[in-house]
């Protein structure tokens, strides 16, 4: 009887997937609530294939940089942010950062720099534009994926100008795309609990909408595994889907598993997410986000073995070689901060997929 119940829940959704019909809120919720993990994975893989996905699994060779960990917002999920007065706070100027990036480039030949920061109230827009300009001059072929929507919003407040104006200055300086952070969970109830000092969801959307219309592609995320409900996860995904319908500028979706170490939530007894929840998030996002082509299994966050499994739950990208990630390491990630290409290739091949090195815009650079 229990088995029949499970089949009954997913059967109408499977019919919709096969017919390439859009899933609605209730479908999303039913997927979140199912305990039939393997059926969910199979359905997500079906959805990926029905929509044209093949056996390719992508990764990018990238370097992570952080210019500053000084942050005016005290998000309760964050272990990275510091105040200016704290001993381990830092703010790195353009020349030092460029020197470091060039030295790393000589070692690793990466194609992308991924950079997110705290919302530092002690620097101005020129601090950010300057580093982009100097990096672009030193490394003209490297794509600069810099600054979450929260940082862009912060810059606009600091400078007293619009999102549009900030993005134009940064684009002229060399900005290539925006990372997806700052989204957290869009529901105001959750935002108020985990990030009361952060801008409302509408600002996040306004920045991505403006970027897309300006020809700047972006990424999008959802931070799960804290105080949010399944309903709030699905609502978040549906809002992203509606934005993608309107502007089409999201390159990829990245579900981010909450890491509680060194945060307020650790003291309240919150634990790391389970493998089942990580796989569920990969699968449900693939099923609901029918218009976002790439779903990342972020190995830094879930470890390579779990990221490998996620490739059978709808994911088609493992993010990157990622040198020196700091946000998840500060909050208890134990996956290391660098993955060599041969290891990524080994894991992808062993999952029965074709490893493809891509650039940020998903152009193929090499396949194994
Ligand atoms: O907005 C912060 C998350 C984001 C924690 O676009 C945490 O490809 C879990 O933007 N546990 C910033 N998550 C990082 C970011 C990002 C990361 C990976 C890929 C991409 C991409 C973008 O990191 C924040 C927040 O959602 N975060 N602290 C934590 N303790």
What does this structure look like?
By secondary structure, the protein is of the alpha/beta class. It has a single domain (55-367), classed as Aldolase class I (TIM Barrel), CATH 3.20.20. The protein is 47% helix and 13% strand. It contains 15 helices and ten strands. The strands form three sheets. A four-stranded mixed β-sheet has the order 8-1-9-10. Strand 9 (354-358) and strand 10 (364-367) form a beta hairpin. Helix 2 crosses helix 10 (230-247). It is globular. The termini are far apart. Bound molecules: ligand V47. Ligand V47 binds next to strand 5 and strand 6.
The CATH architecture name reads Alpha-Beta Barrel
Shape: globular
Main β-sheet description: 4 strands, mixed
Beta-strand content estimate: 5-15%
Number of helices: 15
Helix content: 40-55%
Rg from C-alpha positions? 20 Å
The structure class reads: alpha/beta
Descriptors for this entry?
368 residues; alpha/beta; TIM Barrel; four-stranded mixed beta sheet; 15 helices; 10 strands; 47% helix; binds ligand V47
Concise description?
The protein has one domain: Aldolase class I (TIM Barrel, Alpha-Beta Barrel), CATH 3.20.20.70.
């Amino acid at each position: 009887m229990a088995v029949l119940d499970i089949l009954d829940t997913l059967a109408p959704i499977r019919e919709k997937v096969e017919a390439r019909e859009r899933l609605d809120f209730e479908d999303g919720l039913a997927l979140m609530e199912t305990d039939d993990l393997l059926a969910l994975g199979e359905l997500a893989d079906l959805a990926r294939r029905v929509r044209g996905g093949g056996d390719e699994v992508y990764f990018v060779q990238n370097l992570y940089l952080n210019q500053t960990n000084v942050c005016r917002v005290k998000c309760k999920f964050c272990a990275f942010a510091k105040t200016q007065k704290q001993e381990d706070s830092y703010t790195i100027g353009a020349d030092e950062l460029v020197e470091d990036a060039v030295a790393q480039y000589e070692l690793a030949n990466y194609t992308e720099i991924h950079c997110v920061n705290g919302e530092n109230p002690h620097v101005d827009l020129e601090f950010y534009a300057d580093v982009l300009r100097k990096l672009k001059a030193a490394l003209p072929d490297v794509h600069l994926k810099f600054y979450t929507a929260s940082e862009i919003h912060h810059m606009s407040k600091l400078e007293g100008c619009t999102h549009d104006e900030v993005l134009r200055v940064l684009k002229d300086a060399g900005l290539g795309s925006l990372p997806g952070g700052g989204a957290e969970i869009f529901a105001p109830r959750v935002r108020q609990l985990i990030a009361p000092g952060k801008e409302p969801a509408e600002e996040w959307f306004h920045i991505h909408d403006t970027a897309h219309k300006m020809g700047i592609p972006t990424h999008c995320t959802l931070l799960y595994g804290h105080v949010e409900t399944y309903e709030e996860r699905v609502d978040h995904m549906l809002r992203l889907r509606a934005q993608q319908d309107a502007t089409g500028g999201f390159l990829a979706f990245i579900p981010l598993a909450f890491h509680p170490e060194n945060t307020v939530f650790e003291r309240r007894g919150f634990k790391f997410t389970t493998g089942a929840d990580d796989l569920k998030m990969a699968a449900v996002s693939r099923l609901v986000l029918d218009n976002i082509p790439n779903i990342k299994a972020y190995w830094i966050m879930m470890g390579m073995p779990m990221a490998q499994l996620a490739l059978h739950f709808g994911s088609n990208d493992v993010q990157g070689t990622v040198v020196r990630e700091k946000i998840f390491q500060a909050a208890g990630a134990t996956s290391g901060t660098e993955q060599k290409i041969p290891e990524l290739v080994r894991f992808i091949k062993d999952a029965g997929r074709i490893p493809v090195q891509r650039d940020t815009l998903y152009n193929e650079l090499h396949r194994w």
